[in-house]
Amino acid sequence: MNDENLNLLKIIKSFFLEEGSISKCGKMYVYEISSIKGLRLIRKQFENFPLQTTKLIHFQLWCKVMDMIENKEHLTEKGFLKILSIKNIFPKGISNKIKELYWFI
Questions:
Q1: What is the pLDDT of residues 25-48, one digit of tens each?
Q2: Which residue from 25, 76, 82, 94 has the least number of CB within 10 angstroms?
Q3: Residue ranges of the chain with pLDDT lower than 70?
Q4: Under 8 Å between Cβ of 22 and 13
């Protein structure tokens, strides 16, 4: 593990107003934000400073899902399935267990 990486994550966390948490996962550190408040900060940052290449497309899809959740669309079957179909586009996609349950996506 590299203490410089941990220090960098601490700086990033500070930049995002101390939102989220840093944890150790195996041999690396992970910075995670899960609160809506924190996710809005991340969104604003990347809207002001757009990502490049396919990362931009994934960010735009992530924003769409975030909007759906804030509008409570994820609570409907249609909204939930739409979110699953968006998630399936991402590199890691959806888990095999979810694919078994929702094979028609």
A1: 998 999 999 999 999 999 999 999
A2: 25
A3: 1, 104-105
A4: yes
